Amino acid sequence: MNDDLESVVRKTAAFIGIQHERNIEKAVEMSSFEFMKGNQKKFADMHIARYRNEACGVPHDAVPNKVVTGSASKGRELMDDKTKEIIQGRWLEVVAKQAGFQDYNELRSAFQKNNN
Description:
This protein is mainly alpha-helical. The protein has helices at 5-16, 21-30, 33-38, 46-56, 74-78, 81-99, 104-115. Helix 1 packs across helix 2 (21-30). GO terms for molecular function: sulfotransferase activity.
């Protein structure tokens, strides 16, 4: 997405039937790292954090900041090992059982292969 945000937003808009140009332009603007970094509280999900944390076995008071670096993969480097283990365990329980992908990179590679 970082490589061509506008193209991704336009493809998504077309897929869900949005054609209004101003709405698409606004979505591109509000999907940018700069916008999200400047409006971090809008992306905190504090109201759902306790449910997510309980389901994932994460401490109830953990509310991570989602807007950190603008990189989709940088979060892994910042995350502690216990949280990574919990996420991978849930991935194996849910995604691997349903779709057969053992991790996110495997899923992403399959999508990229299908889109080329």
